[in-house]
Each structure stands twice: as structure tokens, then as C-alpha cells.
């Protein structure tokens, strides 16, 4: 699976969240980072529509990554949508070329996620606020992924940041709805190959847990066969 | 009441809907039409933020008028939002200057309105799709007006267009939730002052209806007084 991350952030070079997410970049060969502001030098009038379409064609998972500005993406991503996602390229019923791909959203909010609900300070949920993207996915015949919301990054402690790091890596690189064994294998692989942690206690423990679980599964299967036989 | 209409439409000069709406312009002294693309010569990098803020301060009803592109306004209006609506200018809790004003939306869609519901071709209602604007109104302490949706303008017959014309005039110029007498007075005033229809049958009929209703109201009031006395 190949992933394209389209980043829209007018102040990307000053963003702690974006720097943090970008640090994952070294771990993946099949992920393309594409920052609209950086790659077009803050002038979206230079947008190369054919190049953008080519990028979309070459990837299976498309992720929009942005800070939430007035309850949607910054203007640069909207300009990208308005100009790149032409009718014949996009509409499912016109044999658009995005059909069957996945659309993910990674968005950061300055407020607590808790504010985003009926009666809360913001009164609307992120599921409601992001409906225009879900509607776009539907129109294009794409699978809409559960958005990854990053709230109040600047107040996160190390443990929360570590969890975010793992969640983000999974979001951009693994298939959706992995089962437990797949998740464990993925985690062992990530820790082994990208963190030089071969002799680490965490990995050892994960491997032991996994072996125990595999044993249990095998025993359950044997018992079932006995019953059925 | 003073109204500011902020129009965002990348192809405004070719738009039949926008030309039609613009024809109302002559009828109003207290309405300002402000087309982002025309007034900034298609280059929103020239946005004059102080001028925009001044316009907002001077008006009581702010209307965003645009064709729905990917389930929200075109990129120009988003850029306007991102740059003009700064935190201290806008946030209710920071004593923003939009508090108490009204926010209206006039949007045109190419599809039938009937497609916009659960299970329909678009699967989401316009109420859901426009939530980001409702959330903005809430954050700014503005009253969110029921949006005026214009669907499939090019297929409208003359009568439907006439009704749209009246609805639009009311949307931009009258207070919300008028009672019947207020609506009738407004309609007589519009027809008399802006259409040279002084001897017209419609106006005569409206005036007769109104007099009949006034009589009925007075009689009901007298009966009530009798009962209470």
C-alpha cells in the first residue's frame, strides 16, 4: 500500500505538531509527504494540477493533514480541492480515478476534544464538522477512514506523545481494522527495524505475549475440533 | 439594518445565478455587494484585511454567497475567513466585534435538493454540510440565519425564478421571522417603489386582503375585550 500525505498549514515551519509528525518520515518507504505551502513556496497559484493528479493516481491511501481553521482545512487545501478534483477525475459516476482508494484526515485542534459535542463549548462533534470530507469521499467512491484527531498537542506529556506517534504511524501505514495478532506483529516490526531496540524488554515482552496467545488459540482450535469431531 | 453580501465565485462573470441575484442590487440602499474575485482581481493575496474588518463592523447582517464547491465555499472565501477572522476580532469570549450580528448563507447547488438527505445521492443534508459555518457563527456570538439554498437554477421556470427573487430580497433586507402583516406591507412596498406597478392588480388585491385582515383583527380584539370586561 502506498500513502500520500497532503499537508496544508500556513505556518508549517513554526508548528510543533507538524515537526513531531514529520519525524516519522524516516520510518517509511511507501509514504509520500507533500506539503502544499512548502512545495509551492506559499503560492498556490503555482499549483501543478497534472502533477497533483499523478500523485493521487500513484497512491492508495490519501491523507489530508491540517490544523482545523474555522472548522475546516486552511484555504490552500480548499484551493487544491477546487482545482485538482475536477468532475471527470473525481466523480464516481463519471469513472473517476479515486474510486476504491482511502481518504484519511489527520487534524489538530487547539481546544480540548471534550468541547466538541452538543452542549459543549463548540457544540458540534468533529464527525459533524468533517462531514464535507466524508461527502467528498462518498462522491469519489473512496473509503472514508476514521479521522485521527490531535487535540492540544502542546499540553501532551511524553507518554501521550508516544501513543500519538504510534497511532499516527499506524494511520499512515497499516490496513484498517487489524486484528490483535496483526497489530502485535506490526508493533514488533516497527520497534525492531526503526528504533534499534533489538534487545529491548518491551519487544521481548510483546513476543512472549504473542507466543502465549498463539498457544491459547491453537488449544482453543483443538478443543473445537474435538467437540465437532 | 445594513447588510454586507460577501460573494465568492471563481467564475462569477459566467454565472447565470449570480447575474440573476445581482439584478436585485438596484432595489436597495442599505446593502453592500462585495465580490472577492472581482474586487481583488482574482488574486486573494491582495486581501486588504483592515478594509474587510471595517466593512464587517459597519454592517449588521453578513451574508456569505457562493456556489457549493466540494461541500463548502470556494477557496477565496476560506482564505478570507482564515485571514480576516482573527481570534481577537472574532471570538465571542475575546469580546469579538461580530457579536450580535447575523450570519446568512446563500448557496447554489447543481444537484437537486432532494439528493441531500440520508440515503440520497449525496447522503448528507445541507444542514449537516453547512455546520462549519454554524459553528463559526456560534464562536463569534452571531445569529445563524436559515440558509437560502438555490438548487438547479438553470432548470427553473419563470414562476420559480420570481419566487427566488422575492425570497432573496427578503433574505438580504428584512428582519427574520416577520409576521403576516409585516410581510404584506413589505411586499406592497417593494412592488410599489421598485417596479412602477402602482396601478397593478396584484397590489390592489394585496391591499384589499390586508384591509380585510386588519378589520378581522380589530373585531377579534373587541370581542376579547368584551369577554374580559
Quickly name the level 1 CATH class of the largest domain in chain A: Alpha Beta
**Greatest interface (CB-CB under 8 A), with counts per chain:** A-B, 30 and 30 residues
CATH topology of the largest domain in chain A: Rossmann fold
Q: Could you tell me how far the N terminus lies from the C terminus of chain A, measured between alpha carbons in angstroms?
A: 41 Å
List SSEs of chain A in N-to-C order.
EHEHHEHHEHHEEHHH
Per CATH, which architecture of the largest domain in chain A? 3-Layer(aba) Sandwich
Given helix and strand content, the structural type of chain A is: alpha/beta
Largest sheet of chain A: 6 strands, parallel
> What is the overall pLDDT average of chain A?
91
CATH homolog superfamily of the largest domain in chain A? Flavodoxin domain
Helix content of chain A: 40-55%
- Quaternary state of this entry equals homodimer
Question: Globular, elongated, flat, extended or rod-shaped: what is the shape of chain A?
Answer: globular
As residue ranges, the low-confidence spans of chain A are none
- Our Rg estimate of chain A from Cα atoms comes to 20 Å
Write a compact overview of the structure shown.
Chain A contains 10 helices and 6 strands, in the order E-H-E-H-H-E-H-H-E-H-H-E-E-H-H-H. By secondary structure, chain A is α/β, with parallel strands linked by helices. In chain A, strand 1, helix 1 and strand 2 form a beta-alpha-beta unit.
